[in-house]
Amino acid sequence: MTSSPSLTDTPTGTDTDTPTRTETDSLGSVDIPRDALWGIHTARALENFPISRRPISVYPDLVNALAIVKQAAARANRELGVLDARKADWIEAACERIRAGEFHDQFVVGVIQGGAGTSTNMNANEVIANVALVANGHAPGDYSVLHPLDDVNRSQSTNDVYPTAVKLALCFSLDRLLAEHEQLRDSFAEKGHEFAHILKVGRTQLQDAVPMTLGQEFHGFATTLTEDLSRLRETAPLLWEINLGATAIGTGITADPAYAATVCRHLRELTGYAHVTAADLVEATSDAGVFMTLSGVLKRSAIKLSKICNDLRLLSSGPQAGFGEITLPARQAGSSIMPGKVNPVIPEVVNQVAFSVAGADTTVTMAAEGGQLQLNAFEPVIAHSLLQSLAWMTGGCRTLRVNCVDGITANLDRLDTMVSTSVGVVTALTPYIGYAAASALAKTALLTHRNIADLVVEADLMSRERVMKLISPARLSGIEAITAAIPVVDGDPAI
Prior knowledge:
There is one protein chain. The chain has helices at residues 40-48, 60-80, 85-99, 118-135, 148-152, 158-194, 214-235, 259-271, 281-286, 289-315, 345-369, 379-403, 412-420, 430-433, 435-448, 452-458, 464-470, 473-476; strands at 20-25, 28-33, 199-204, 207-213, 241-242, 276-277, 326-327, 409-410. The chain is mainly alpha-helical. It has 3 domains: 20-154, Fumarase/aspartase (N-terminal domain) (Fumarase C, Chain B, domain 1, Orthogonal Bundle), CATH 1.10.275; 161-412, Up-down Bundle (Fumarase C, Chain A, domain 2), CATH 1.20.200.10; 421-476, Orthogonal Bundle (Ribonucleotide Reductase Protein R1, domain 1). A two-stranded antiparallel sheet has the order 1-2. It has a two-stranded antiparallel sheet with strand order 3-4. The longest helix has 37 residues, at 158-194. It is elongated and about 100 Å long. The termini are far apart. The model is unreliable at 1-14 and 483-495 (pLDDT under 50). Residues 1-28 are annotated as: Disordered. Residues 426-476 form the Fumarase C C-terminal domain. Keywords: Lyase. Residues 29-359 form the Fumarate lyase N-terminal domain. It holds the Pfam family Lyase_1.
């Protein structure tokens, strides 16, 4: 990513001894750093919104989306004959360079801003105009040649550009999350296969329950992630509906009647997404429903992933005084005072990502509700909340997979000991020896911590061969289904 404009040759008419240039708007004049590719409207935003200390360039997807929207607009305006072909070509070339990663550092306005995203749109208009000017031998700010508003923003308003760019940026970010989410799902599924025949004690309400396999537990994690993948994928097409062409409030004022359909077609060609123009542009310009939908589904995914991380922390707790059924990869020293301590830092960080996503969902909900009449002024905080949540979830899925799940191992001796002495195993014998006998066995096992199979044989309730078959991993975990009627107590159990 280029960190400064390409000004190896000084543009014609530039005074290299002057550190600033002066730009003027309806409010007056402002001095701008001479080589800055942003202009007066961006300068005012920098002064007015010293809030987040985070420029919009922290979200490259948003910068690239703005460039794509402006590129589609330039193509549509050229096709409709409302913008000179030379100017359109300049704009398009500048947008291509931004999409390639150049000049992102010039997108400097804060992510949190008043004005419904106007400052972001102005920043984009000014950078694109000045990149084009410099590339064609003119000085930054020489707007008599190419103007940020009259040319780059032709047929547009912040109120249709900004939400369209935000939706497009969310599409890019969501695609990235889906790819990482799917790989994480596959990692859990692979562990499910690896652990398929390892018995363990199942638990309900943190109390011992009936046996299962460790593979079933991890396969359940994979199934949970599969369901959330489906919900996230269902959300993506909702982001393809745009209000580009609505201009200020949805009436299309200042735009050619054919502009909305034309620019949508060009946007489809540039992105590969099946964009459609909203049927009611007035409604679409003020509606933030799709952002709430995405936020809600994202929260669901984050919270369910966090629950899985809770389980991983519990299952690996110890290593001596906890569950100790699995071992997570040791990633770093866990204490500045306790030598040898290793903490489950990867699940912990994913938990925190989920907490942030849940909080962001509340922010998005409140911002959507706060919209008034023909516009929602709070889309900047919606965009920031969702783009951050998507980025953090993507990073969380990646680090959970690479730094944790792929390296999980089963503590076989610990698991075998816990299963062999677990009273939950007795549940599998109840249909054969009766509830009363099973209860007595359970009580003895709890008091003596002895092996269940040994107690059954010693009580002369059945042969060792028979009891071992009944408490085999396949039977205990339900993998081997029992479909025939089972004679109880005095009969000859069919095994």
